[in-house]
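Changelog-adjacent note: as of this version, every example in the card shows the full chain rather than a window. The one below runs 215 residues end to end.
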Amino acid sequence: MLIEVIEGLYSFMWDNNRENNCNAFLIDGSRKILIDPGHQHLFAHVEKGLAALKIPIEKIDLVIATHAHPDHFEAVARFPDTTQFAMGYYEYELVKKFAGSYFQLPEPDFFLQEGELIIGTNQFEILETPGHSPGSVCIYWPEKRVLFAGDVIFHHGIGRTDLPGGSGKQLKESIQRIRSLDVEYVLSGHGDVIAGKEAVQANFQEIENYWFNYI
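Full-length structure tokens:
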């Protein structure tokens, strides 16, 4: 399902509960950036969305993976060599360690690091947010007050911590860190978009009141 979140920002929402895949997001600016393309065999929902926007896959300048779980990055293999790919270094090492024998991940053109990231005319802030995975990142777009949260938080929920490298303590610290940002839209890897500053803060409060008791 294709949603225009704000002008120049689109969400390809995954709403099939019978299969495991993630939401993907497109920033259609001076450079076209796709965040978390999903599983390779379930990439059709992104392809349909791009077709509806009349954007060929070859026009995507950069694919970013928030973390190294297959339902977020696997479809990067579908993109041509002209499309750059970026993810965190520790996440790349995680893939090589646990899946290198049966999945050949394209080597990133660059690694995401804590701090400023400028792509074309857009400025982002990369935040290292471990817990769901050891090198997970969130991407903050301050101009638009948008947070791409990966699987750190969801609408009414949080990322699991029982996968390799997961840590409940680190996830709590990451959530408390991103809560301090000026955010009006939270775009998570699964579930609904959280829109509106009050809704965003209410969701953080719900997470702290409930989920922090279980991690």
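Structural remarks: The first strand starts at residue 2 and ends at 6.
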